[in-house]
């Protein structure tokens, strides 16, 4: 899961709080394993799977292919909860 952001706005004396939760998923590996010999070959890893627990260095390595998370395609999906409204 990604970071959570608060957005507040004032309209007609009403304060509306909107929480936006950003869901980030890492998909297939795009690392070119044959770049050093002038070719092009990917390993076929379909989705990033963390090697360790969150907050550790191993969490950034894929258990399937051994690549760093940055080699995997990043997919961002905003999930907006626009139902919370408070007056004040």
From TrEMBL:
It comes from Urochloa decumbens. The lineage of its organism: Eukaryota, Viridiplantae, Streptophyta, Embryophyta, Tracheophyta. Signal peptide: none annotated. Keywords: Cytoplasm, Metal-binding, Zinc, Zinc-finger. This is ZF-HD dimerization-type domain-containing protein. It comes from the Eukaryota. InterPro entries: ZF_HD_homeobox_Cys/His_dimer. It is found in: Cytoplasm. Residues 26-75 form the ZF-HD dimerization-type domain. Pfam families: ZF-HD_dimer (PF04770). One of its GO terms (cellular component) is cytoplasm. GO terms for molecular function: zinc ion binding.
